[in-house]
Amino acid sequence: MIATLRTVFMGTLFASLAAGCGSSVVLDPPTIPKPLMTTIPLSVGLRMPENFESFVHEEEVLGREQWTIDLGRSNAVFFAQLFGYMFETVTVVSEADDPSIMPFDALIEPSIDEFEFSVPNQTKTNDFAVWIRYRIKVYDRDGKLVVNWPVSAYGKSQTTVMGGKDALQRAAILAMRDAAALMIIKFDEPTLISSISSDPTSTAVPVEEGGEATAQATTLGGDNDE
Amino acid sequence: MNELWSSTVAYRLTLVCALLGVGAGCVTSRVEDAREGITGIASDESVVIMAKSYHLGNETEAKYIACIENALARGSKGLRVIPHKQFVDSLFPWFEPRTAPTETKGLPKLMERPGVAAQIHEQGVRYIIWLEGDTEKVAGGGSLSCAAGPGGGGCFGFAWWQNASDYNASVWDLEGLESAGTVSADVSGTSFLPALVVPIPLIARTQAAACKGLANQLRAFIISDELT
CA nearest A37: which of B155, B131, B112, B134? Predict the structure, then answer.
């Protein structure tokens, strides 16, 4: 009996110590305020990748501290909300849907290229920082890729009495909000979405699939893609 | 003679700090302002406290911003302060770290954006106060060791550290869309931790002193007594 109790106690102790070496952060879907902007008069379809419903990033910091950041549905909720504010009509379509038979002016496909973060141990500050590089692809009504735009976003938050998890969560939300600000300001540039007019006879210049250094992407991403 | 006087003064200063400060170290502070225009504020007008963007390398602590907000709003001469989060959200995305104007010459263009001027007017914001700066440990030394055993424990030794809190506030007048001037607070202080069995911390609260000093000076700067 004593041996069993000892085993249970030691097991619990080791489990606690092991848990102490790792941190897990779960992000609740953020909300962004209604932006002060003129709505872009386009009807768009929004096709989100599978991992926008359950994005998990795991990383071992300095070879000893395991961090798991679970963004969950944050990206799906965030982009639906953002584009809902930006465009006249937004319809979320699934991977199975055929957008060519739907009456959209354009189809937008966001994705995550990279996710990185830093913790105070690495930077010798009190700051948690998060970098997210999204990629926004826009297809015209003929299914041609007309925009291929990398959007780099950054958020930083200081450690509080609530602890590091809270700060990292806030840094991630600030990074998403940073991406939203950039997209709102730059999406309606002449070389981007405005080139896709609601007029069905207009044509946008297609860019090559996978070709990031396109004239359109360069013009847009140039100064602001930090 | 001078040396004797200095050491006496230093001794008295330390004693005063240790006894009267009730656990507080000594701080020295300098608060200055540089006025560029005439200020004043009506009872229905408000101010917003913002931190300069971390995209520009600024590290102003969130708790310092909250401290300035509270200190400015407090008292009989308290100002109407709009919480910065409320202000930033209401003007999304124009006051985000990436997009906020960095100098007053960007204000006219910003006011032309859809809804911006109306939103600022609705909240009665007359001044935006941009804070930059932070509190840093600039020096430290000494040694302190603690031990504990079955019969009890204790610490022995002496440690000290020096903090510097340097903050600068730029005041933008949204009525004239121009800079009204700057107010700065430079506070430094040394904290001591002597321990003879029990450690007795004598903490120099430089950030709190910088908050109080800057807020008082900002209030006087904005209210501009010569006009009232």
Answer: B112
Inside any domain, residue A102: yes
Find out whether A133 and A113 touch, Cβ atoms under 8 Å: yes
**pLDDT above 50: residue B15:** no
* Full domain range(s) for residue A116: 22-224
Q: Which of B61, B94, B98 sits opposite A36 (nearest CB)?
A: B94
A211 within a domain of the structure (yes/no)? yes
Q: Which ranges of chain A have pLDDT less than 50? A: 1-2, 5, 7-20, 201-206, 210-226
Q: In terms of DSSP bridges, do strands A65-72 and A22-26 run parallel, antiparallel, or are they unpaired?
A: parallel
**CATH assignment at residue A86:** 3.40.50
Task: Verify whether the Cβ–Cβ distance B92 to A36 is below 8 Å.
Answer: yes
What are the chain B neighbours of A120 within 8 Å (beta carbons)?
none
- Quote the number of domains for chain A: 1
The pTM of the full predicted model, rounded to 2 decimals, is 0.80
- Burial environment of residue B137 by CB neighbours within 10 A (0 to 12, 13 to 18, 19 or more): exposed
List the single residue in A160, A181, A224 with the smallest CB-CB distance to B93: A181
What's the confidence (pLDDT) of residue B17?
54
Determine the distance in angstroms separating the CA of B107 from the nearest CA of chain A, rounded to an integer: 16
Residue A74 lies in a domain: yes
- Chain A CB contacts of B94 under 8 Å are 36
**Interface contact A33-B59, CB threshold 8 A:** no
**Domain locations along chain B:** 21-223
H/E stretch holding B59 reads none
